[in-house]
Amino acid sequence: MRTHSAGVHKVFGAAPKKAPARSVGGIRPALFYSLFAGLLATNVLTLVGFLMAPDISALLSGQNDQVVAAYEDRIAQLRVEVDRLHSRQFAQAGDINLQLQELTQQQEVLLEQHQLVKQLAQKAAEMGIDTSTTTSAAADDDEAPTAPIATVAPASATSEDLAAVSSSMVQMMDDSRMALAALSGSATESTTTILDALKGIGIRPSMPDDSDLGVGGPLLPPTTDGLDSTGIVDDANAAYLALARFKAARTAIDLAPVHKPMGALTRVSSTYGNRKDPFTGGRAFHAGIDFPAPKGTTVLSAGYGKVTFVGMKSGYGNLVEIAHGTGLVTRYGHLSAFLVTEGQIVATGTPIARVGSTGRSTGPHLHFEVRLRDVAVDPGKYLAVGKRLARFLGA
Fold first, then answer.
1. What is the pTM of this model?
2. Which of these, 277, 271, 366, lies nearest to 316 by C-alpha position?
3. Which helix (H) or strand (E) holds 300?
4. Radius of gyration of the chain (CA)
5. Pick from 132, 142, 165, 299: most CB atoms within 10 A?
6. CA–CA separation, 20 vs 229, rounded Å?
7. Which of 302, 308, 355, 304 is nearest to 333 (CA)?
């Protein structure tokens, strides 16, 4: 019997059909087991590598003491290297400090030498020596460089800094020696000029030498360290000796009878030598030079000496005679008055008498005569020497 329902036909006795199954998402078993096996293998390899490392292996195998000892040795070596670097740095710093101390001492000596050059140059200038070649080297002595060493700090000093300072000091030392050499040369040249001029008129003054420079010490073999006591000390001693000799020569000029016997010698009425005698008209020898001047004009000593005669002398009238040593004597004749007495010591330029016209004279004038070992010599030569050497006087 068929039963009909709206649009549905059921057949009795037939099994009902199942609905198709819906698919469920997830990891397939094969892929899961593959990933697990890979992860396990990676962990195994990492563990094996870790266990095979030398230090870790040693630790795990009971060699902990050896590893620690190796690390300590390595640390000790590093400390030794650091200490060596520090020691080298300290040694270099100490060496620089030592060099700076030496340079400072040298600088102090150099400043003293500069002051010495300046003093010698001033002394030479006061004595009338041309120091134009010396002052250029000693002009800035008051500003002698003290800064180069003072500004070099030991912490920042380098070998280049020290070399620069040392080079500068060597240059200053050379400049000082050049200044001393120039000073000695100028003084020696002036002394030679004076002595040659005085020698030409028979005056040979006693001159100092270096025999009074006391030196001594035990005789020892020379050293090989390069130390030498010569150099600027010898230059300074040479400059001192040159100045001492110049001073002696200059004193000889001042003492010698080469100076004017009156303040102004503008005219000469009769020269030294043969002439026409003013009284007889014949040829006669004139032993001096006549300088006409107003009566009462002051007569001056031509040099340092001792008055040996004051009085009347035949032919001279009133006469003053002065002995100057080494056989030199000057005579001043025809005087109107005396200003000195016998035995009196007179300096160059000392007033000794007044011009007159006593004795064998035709009018007021000064008869000036020079005698060497009691023989009359030309006074003109002596006055010419005094005029030529006047540039060394007056200081």
1. 0.62
2. 366
3. strand 298-300
4. 57
5. 299
6. 127
7. 355
The model's pLDDT over 333-371, given as tens digits with 9 standing for 90+, comes to: 999 999 999 999 999 999 999 999 999 999 999 999 999
Asked if residues 370 and 379 have their Cβ atoms less than 8 Å apart, the reply is: yes
Q: What are the residue ranges in the chain where pLDDT is below 50?
A: 1-14, 23-24, 135, 137-153, 155, 226-227, 229, 395
Give percent of the chain with pLDDT exceeding 90.
38
Phi, psi of 359 (to 5 degrees): 80, -150
Q: Hey, how many other C-beta atoms are within 10 angstroms of the C-beta on 6?
A: 4
Q: Are the C-beta atoms of residues 283 and 274 closer than 8 Å to each other?
A: yes
The reported pLDDT for the residue numbered 283 is 94
Residue 321: exposure state from Cβ atoms within 10 A (0-12, 13-18, ≥19)? buried
Is 334 within 8 Å of 369 (Cβ atoms)? no
User: Which residue type is seen at 32?
Assistant: F
Q: Quick check: 101 and 165 in contact, CB under 8 A?
A: no
Measured CA to CA, the distance from residue 367 to residue 355 in angstroms comes to 9
CA distance 321 to 324: 10
CB-based burial label for 48 (10 Å; 0-12, 13-18, 19+): exposed
